Amino acid sequence: MGKIPVGILGATGMVGQQYIALLEGHPWFEVRYAAASPRSAGKKYAEAVAGRWHQVKTYSDAVGALIVEDANDLSRAVKAVKGGDCAFVFSALEMGKEEIRTLESAYAAAGIPVISNASAHRWTGDVPMLIAEINPHHTDLIPIQRTKRGWDRGFIVVKPNCSIQSYMIPLYALIKAGYAAGRLFVTTLQAVSGAGYPGVPSLDMIDNVVPYIGGEEEKSEQEPLKILGTLKDGGIKNAPAPRISAHCNRVPVSDGHTACVSLEFAGPKPSIDTVKEIWASFTALPQELDLPMAPKRPIILRDEADRPQPRKDRDADKAMAVTVGRIRPCNIFDLRFTCLSHNTVRGAAGGGILNAELLKTKGYLS
Amino acid sequence: MGKIPVGILGATGMVGQQYIALLEGHPWFEVRYAAASPRSAGKKYAEAVAGRWHQVKTYSDAVGALIVEDANDLSRAVKAVKGGDCAFVFSALEMGKEEIRTLESAYAAAGIPVISNASAHRWTGDVPMLIAEINPHHTDLIPIQRTKRGWDRGFIVVKPNCSIQSYMIPLYALIKAGYAAGRLFVTTLQAVSGAGYPGVPSLDMIDNVVPYIGGEEEKSEQEPLKILGTLKDGGIKNAPAPRISAHCNRVPVSDGHTACVSLEFAGPKPSIDTVKEIWASFTALPQELDLPMAPKRPIILRDEADRPQPRKDRDADKAMAVTVGRIRPCNIFDLRFTCLSHNTVRGAAGGGILNAELLKTKGYLS
Amino acid sequence: MGKIPVGILGATGMVGQQYIALLEGHPWFEVRYAAASPRSAGKKYAEAVAGRWHQVKTYSDAVGALIVEDANDLSRAVKAVKGGDCAFVFSALEMGKEEIRTLESAYAAAGIPVISNASAHRWTGDVPMLIAEINPHHTDLIPIQRTKRGWDRGFIVVKPNCSIQSYMIPLYALIKAGYAAGRLFVTTLQAVSGAGYPGVPSLDMIDNVVPYIGGEEEKSEQEPLKILGTLKDGGIKNAPAPRISAHCNRVPVSDGHTACVSLEFAGPKPSIDTVKEIWASFTALPQELDLPMAPKRPIILRDEADRPQPRKDRDADKAMAVTVGRIRPCNIFDLRFTCLSHNTVRGAAGGGILNAELLKTKGYLS
Amino acid sequence: MGKIPVGILGATGMVGQQYIALLEGHPWFEVRYAAASPRSAGKKYAEAVAGRWHQVKTYSDAVGALIVEDANDLSRAVKAVKGGDCAFVFSALEMGKEEIRTLESAYAAAGIPVISNASAHRWTGDVPMLIAEINPHHTDLIPIQRTKRGWDRGFIVVKPNCSIQSYMIPLYALIKAGYAAGRLFVTTLQAVSGAGYPGVPSLDMIDNVVPYIGGEEEKSEQEPLKILGTLKDGGIKNAPAPRISAHCNRVPVSDGHTACVSLEFAGPKPSIDTVKEIWASFTALPQELDLPMAPKRPIILRDEADRPQPRKDRDADKAMAVTVGRIRPCNIFDLRFTCLSHNTVRGAAGGGILNAELLKTKGYLS
To answer: Which of B134, B137, C350, D51 is 20 to 30 A off residue C67, Cα-Cα?
Structure first.
């Protein structure tokens, strides 16, 4: 039986390249359609990325030979769908937020499911913002989305910002075990790959730290509430908690966002040992379904005093596991810990692929 | 009129070198005595530091020609005092805590004032832990210290850990203006020079962050309480607040500790504008006395969204000013900001020299 | 007597900012005219550089209050000259080479001396490419240039590329002492500030080296020949030697270009000791004239096995001295050494200012 | 059929850890014996490396449970041999050169083949210094070595220094194709992992380059001559060429040594295109034998102007391939290029394992 043909919107950009690198050899999906800006359209993919391929892994000859289409020209995608070359698209579009929102909607309206990495639709009411281990049931919005908008096969799902991946899964594991989160301080030390390419100038990252990333603190504070929200009235009612205060910093690290977290529980307070047990044993739907991109253990605990560290821990279990360490009581709240996830794999393309795998098992991609 | 002759204990180590570099050309003090480990004793200073001088600035020929004495051999120091070559010492000793405590006490008992950078005596009851802008009145402990211990001219004062310098002065400025601090979250991004030389291996600092510095969080949480404490019963009664929770990280920065702070006031809450006004206009005793090492403004405010940054702000005003930026409301507490100070100048040798200048104007060094 | 009023073309760019930072407090020159792209024109300088001032030093209030003019609008400059606000300009223009060539010529034609940092006129026959310690006599081309082109007061001089500054002065000192250079291998390890801002992306400079800088090897091989050339027929006849082969690399260093050099003499071969003596004692016209920007010693020798190093040596003597170390025989040629100069001071704005000082003493700026 | 049991001397050090990480899952070899300093002896391997395991990959439970033996106690190794737990050893000893030389000889004398990463025996006359693609025939010294020293089963082979791996294979490919090398300039930009752990202090590698690595230039100049030498009189007669001049630098890169090379041929000179063809098509004995650790292509050519780069190219083909780029004529010699190899894999443990695989197929390990 053949693989499901996949399209990438924004295929020549940084995240688009990551999708292509990560999908090489994927057991279910195969990249057969690549779309990008008009500047790249008409070129072979290999030509379009010549001199600006920034992944360590390279692309296959088959992908290199794909003719890049204009992402704005929906008719090309529709033709690819009819020709059996595109069952759904990963959106890694890099343009204005408003344009992305319109374009992604147009793809969905044309019958093409859109699994997006962009922030454009994160706050669209009936669009689920998925972390596969946390809120897979939010995919129940898809039929509602389709009905409401008159779409038949198409739909849109998004993933959240890369800055929150490292603490959302540990947080959720505690909530699921009965320990509701009340308030949370988080300071992030974020890698430069999160800013794309060329992204952060090296003059700002040699012997330096930049204590600001535009829009990142707001996303870090608000997106968790939608992810932890409940389905209601054909949309998502945000969770009332936790209340989050974020300080986001850019540090001279290539990949891997680190987060220092202090957490106050809203109700019962687990012991440090209980916290460790909950995290060490946590698994969720992607693990039960044994999805190809799912880590065996979503949370890896490290006992050493000085872990997690980006260079040593970011690649844990296909770079899809979150590593947690320095678990200790907080001097003000209840619990302190440091956590880390790979921002361009778990936090971007890898997370998108895991969402696609989940959607496939739920039958939304057929 | 001649300069006051100064000795350096631990003169060949990292902090000792900083004292020597910073004291070059000092209007009041002149290094005339250098002591270090037995390994260096008997060598000229220039020979003793050959191949391990890690400062950008170099030392004068006069200092290079000093014969290094054994710091353990108190008789040498006493002889230097008698010979008019040492009115007091800066202690930058690098040995076991217990040994330092004993040795510094011995110097003081021998009539030699000790202005120490070491942590050994920070929690000795009658030893003031000074930040010249905050608690200059704690020097009132010196006569008590002398009486209690039967010392005539000698005494010991210490300075606090380098990790807290960036937020203590802003915090104190608010307290002084009537806004008591209740609770404080701080995450530090600390420079490698804080660990001395060789210090942190480069393999741990290339494309990496280490989320742990031994003992640093405890110091960051406890030392502020002594500094803000009140004189009572011949000692210092710790301040009851603020309650502090610290996350300390090592980042690939040479000099300059950054701190991300969230602050809750205990009583009245100033507006953001009031906070800015208090900080921008703050001065204290070192400024009034126009001490040579004192920055014109202890606190420099930056309006840019992305400041302070270590490489751009650490050297502000002789590297003695604290730079504060990103002043904004906190989503949980009252106030959020990022601050930065030079850890080996303000946070080490520069802070020690400022303390000496203060002590001189108070008459303790004559 | 007042200072000479100076204009900066390209005043808001990286090199333009460096000129402004370095000219603060200059004893002879004062920035009174700032021109840049139309986008900045009409704004106060402080507004024009808000959020993109990349120097550690800041600009004066007087410079911040200057109204930025459109550099393409020559009439503004002419008006400034008439108004006594601009006796000559430093050109730090950032536009196409052809446009710069035309524009710089237009300024000169309008009677305004142009001391340029740009590469546009480096190979114009009657334009001297100056390193003040090496070829100050090439300024004799100025009267020829004026005559030939019918210019009265205006002229153009340029400075060479930043990659060659570290080895050209040591090389020249040897030539001057009678040891002609035959062939020279050089591998450079260049700082990112040489690429301007934003310049090199941080993703390319974290845990990485880029073994290529466009056009840099050609410049490194050819410019020395013009600098060492002789005046002939109203132009410069390139020196026939040394023959140079360059490998240029970008490394994760903010400022300071390092060069590893192997040199073969064409005639008599000095001993290593003779080389050291020549370099240690070398001075030239800028030192004799005691020009404000001139280093006391153009070449600083370091005996330590592991110097020069960018972070420790780049700032030597106002960042205008070249530091040389590792002087030893070569296994193939005659002499091996490593040298270093500050690329944005000696290699850019500082070198331009030194050239201006030289031109002033020669009477070309009055 | 079972795997060959392998011992590691110096198993807890940096290179020893690399052997253990790289041998995980090896199809032929299995680590069953671990020896280190007396300090580690008697502990489980997992305990012995607790807090100082510096590899990204971890070790297996089986290796973690091994009891570390004292490497100086030969009787333990002999016992392991008898017990079927050690057919040969990889030596990654970290002690004095003289001690290593004696100890490795003692292992060989006791019947245990020693495949060494240390430099101690590199210049022992009858000890081959192997790069498996270049001089596999030097293993013919093993029977001679055994006879001469009265050893039966034991022998010693070594691998060369990590700094030369990147250019030796390209150089040899040209020689093999009939283009003898005459003279060679090389400037290396070496990664910090080459200095072990803790190795280079981070204060020396943040915003800095160190233009010196003790002993490295001598090794880079001399070792190639032995590797390219011919067997004669029971030893190796060094090749007379190429004459090499090396400049070795330490740069802020974790793994991956870069080398900038200028090469002069001794006889016929190939065109640039011929050079590219020779390199692109080069294979040798390890490829013919399809050894598990052998890269498919020992040399990977990159056409991009700015490659090879450490972060992008070091891991090519199990980090065992050399990447070459910037192939162009030299302005003085004949050919210029930049090459890169992974210093701790190809240049250390990976190279040692490849040597062991070669020795196994030649029957020396049975």
So the answer is: C350
